[in-house]
Structure formats: C-alpha cells, structure tokens
Amino acid sequence: MGTVEEGSLRTMRLALSYQSGFWNLHSSEAIAGALPQEQNSPQKTPLGLYPEVISGSAFTAPRAENLSTWMYRLRPSAMHAPFRRADDGLLRSGPFDEVATPFNRLRWDPLPMPDAPTDFLGGLVTLAGSGDPASQSGIAVHVYRANRSMTDRFFCCADGELMFVPQQGEIMLFTELGRLSVTPGEVAVIPRGVKFKLEIVREAVRGYLCENYGQPFRLPELGPIGAQGLAQARHFLAPVAAYEEREARCELVTKFMGALWATEINHSPLDVVAWHGRYAPYKYDLALFMAVNTVTVDHADPSIFTVLTSPSGQPGTANCDFVIFPPRWVVAEHTFRPPWFHRNMMSELMGLVRGVYDAKAEGFTPGGVSLHNCMAAHGPDVATYDKATNEALAPTRYKDTLAFMWESRFVFRPTKFALESSQLQAHYDSVWDGFRKPSI
Prior knowledge:
Layout: H1 9-15, E1 18-20, E2 26-29, E3 50-55, E4 68-73, E5 84-85, E6 106-108, E7 125-129, E8 139-146, E9 153-157, E10 161-168, E11 171-175, E12 178-182, E13 186-190, E14 196-200, E15 205-212, E16 237-239, E17 250-256, E18 259-265, E19 272-277, E20 282-285, E21 306-314, E22 317-325, E23 328-330, E24 347-354, E25 369-372, H2 382-390, E26 396-398, E27 402-408, E28 413-414, H3 416-420
Parallel strand pairs: 9-17
Antiparallel strand pairs: 1-16, 2-19, 3-4, 4-19, 5-18, 6-25, 7-8, 7-28, 8-15, 10-13, 10-15, 11-12, 11-14, 13-20, 17-18, 21-22, 22-27, 23-26, 24-25, 24-27
C-alpha cells in the first residue's frame, strides 16, 4: 500500500490486507525497494528514508521475548518541539489513590455517547486500575466513546500497551506501521510507544480499553490442553505498511507517567514507508477462538477461556489475563452449569459486548461493566440460580453472546468519577437477595 488518500474509510477497509502470526518477524514496504535487505542501518538508506528502531523490551531480554521493529520514515520522530502539559480530562492513571477503594461488588450501566463532537481522546474515561506505570506493573481500564475521527491529532501511550475491545461501531486504527480495521467481536492491541489515530468508519463508537503497564500480552501456555487449543498464532493479524504524507499543523499527545503531554508538529507522524520486526500492532477475531469445556460433569475454571496473558513474574499468576465467554455448546451432565459462587484471590473486571452473560439474568447490559475485587463473594443472581437448578439438562447452545474479563493479581481501584457516576448501579447487591435457606 502506498500513501493513504482521503476518502471512504469503508472502501479503505475492504482494500486492507494483513500479515499473519503472533509475534512473527514481519516486514512490509509501501513503496517497492524502500526496505533495506542486507542490514538495518546502511550509510545511505533506500529512497533517503530515516532508519529508526523502536524497542518494546530491554536490549538484553531473552531472544523469545525480545521485541523491536525497524522503521524507515520520511522524518525522524525526534523532530518535534518540547512537550507541554495537556488537560487529562477524565483520564486517570496509577497509583489510583484519589479515593478509597470500597470492598463492594460494583456494576455500571453503559456510559452514554457524547452529544458534542468528540474524538477518541476527548471521550476517554477511566473506570479503575491498579499498579503504577512507573513500576511497569498493573493495568488501567478505560471506556472510549467517540463520534468524530481524529484527523490532525495523534496519540501515543508511553505508559503501556493498549487493548481495544469494541462494543459499538467499527474503528479504524491508523498506526505508524499501517491500518487495522476492528469491529465488535474483534480485539486489537497497539504496543507501548506506537503512535496512532482512531478513525470512525460509519457511526459513533464505544468500547473498552485496557492499558497494560506490565509485560506485553502474549499467548498463554497450554499445558495439558495441548498445542492446538485456544487462540491460534496464525489468526493474529498485523498491518502492512501505509503512510500518511501530510504537511500541516498536527498535535501529538503522549501519555507519560500518568499525565498527558502535547506538542505541535508540522506533519503527520504516521510517515513510516517501510518496516520490519516483531513489535507491531495486531488484531484478532474472537470468533476464531477454540473454546474448550467439560464434556462430563462440573463447571471448569474460567482460565480455559484465556486468549492472551500478561505475566507478572510469579508463575501462573497474571498481571492481567484477557478471558472471553463466547458462543459455545454446554453439555455437562448432573451439573449446575453457570459459574459457581466464588471468592477469588484474583480480581475480575467484566464487560459485555453483546447478548446476555450466563450468570446474570438482568442488569448487565452490553457496554456495561462489573467489578468483583479480591475475595469479594459473587456468582449467579437468584433468577439464574433458580433456573439452572431446575431446568431439564440437555446440550445447550449459548449463542448471540460475548462477554469478557480482565482478571488480575492486583486489586482494581475505581476512580472518583466511576464511584460518583450516575451509571453506577446503587442496588447491585440486591441481585443476591432472596436466596432461600434449605429445610434440613
């Protein structure tokens, strides 16, 4: 692909192509011959482009975990004026200590779409998080809402990688390394430090956003499941090179140490003509996930639905797991099939892309959020429990549903906005009222 022209984003989406494979060594050039073949930084590069490397890991990280990409661009990205502090709006960051964290189960209705013209940055709201970007551990969970494309404004997160989970509307992520079209039912990840803008294809958009301060998301180990289960590496798609050649006033906003910083530049920063490496944005279609489940009795742990994981350094205990509850067959015999009542060391923050979540009969709607922190008792509501304990068991297809969970070893600490929001359900605890004591 060459220079990206102005025009229909829908037409652009249809014309997009991708490179496949998770953490593969990809290479791409928007102009034939732009990519050096024999070395990374020749004395004179093809087409006079500027070589620049971005490293997503320490130089001395083990080879299997070493992430970097060489870019060949129209201008060095060092070519900018000093940054100035910008308004953070409703964006917050670790250590999330502006209000006390309650030991309560919490649930929010969907945040409303903005009325005024609002781009991705203008509509970002932080709900909760943990850790601290300075220590490179923990995560932040935001909701994005927008009704206008970013045109002359660009964003870069130096604090962590960004996982997009669209809930309403298709987004086009135009990054330094190319474009990703992402629709509800897909997810996308933009690595730490990669610049991008979010464009709207047709309608206003809303979705969930995880800012991962810790180790980059990777495919989980499979153990006894075996090599063929869960998400397949070849189904992850990276962009091909596409650049924007525009000489006009642009604003580059960077999130660093929890704060927004902005500078003006006289050109688009998305001017990478060719690149090669393993550190690249990617997307994944959740419909391709190979779900595994019990075919005898009992309800398995939700870890069997892990798509991606960010390790914490303690084996088997994640900084963050991304877990989905997709359409699937449920066949367990003599079994209470919804999730059981439980209290976890891990903390759980859930979202719903579409349909109904099988543990809640009502109140948890697409675009909403629920939060159950460490050791907070939770599980099915009364209506779900009564139905599941009395229904005739037969193979059942859960369809037209997609819920997900970000699970972490760290407590999610809600923001002041989240706790004071009118979308916070005041009577969420009442879904567990009415359980009857058995006669014994």
